[in-house]
């Protein structure tokens, strides 16, 4: 995931507008935890288990072990491309991890629910995809992570993000700790298909074949532009990985 410059997410203004919700999000965390014993809000209780703290270091491994592969799909959901990615994954019998941008999730809750309904996992990719997160204040990082958490969980109907992936990999010790404390394992990647740069299907396929030995977590995108190359590459890569004896899993938490 290169640090996409000039991405054109219109998230900045919205993020500023949402800044006031940080306190509300933090409050709801404690409400949810209290509900484990109080039981006043069944909906919060359902989503509470995933909120238990997880490790703070950046995960790359697969829960399928040494021959596992984690397909990760970033920056959506997107009304043009996410349904096509979902159909392809369904046809291939592959589960993936979707790192969603908060504003996208908020705009397309039906797609967030469709991702969850198909058995995929959610990952928090911040409110507005700011790849300079690691140069910003802790208050800003907190707002980006907690507001996105709230937006994604609301859009999904209560299913929480199990991971946190900083845009462009711009993690900080603070952001990793904050995410982990709320049950979102920091998530890295091993193989960058660079699909965002439209390198061509053959190049993307070759990249995965060459680099999958480096580690199991592969990065694709389902938003931010024409993703037809991504779809075409996935159509080749998924069967190839199966032929090589890989199975598809989720990043460890
Ligand atoms: Zn991204």
TrEMBL record:
Residues 67-249 form the NodB homology domain. Gene3D superfamilies: Glycoside hydrolase/deacetylase. Keywords: Signal. Residues 1-34 form the signal peptide. CDD domains: CE4_NodB_like_6s_7s (cd10917). Pfam families: Polysacc_deac_1. The keyword Signal applies. It comes from the Bacteria. InterPro entries: Glyco_hydro/deAcase_b/a-brl, NODB_dom, Polysacc_deacetylase_ArnD. This is Peptidoglycan/xylan/chitin deacetylase (PgdA/CDA1 family). It comes from Streptomyces clavifer. The lineage of its organism: Bacteria, Bacillati, Actinomycetota, Actinomycetes, Kitasatosporales.
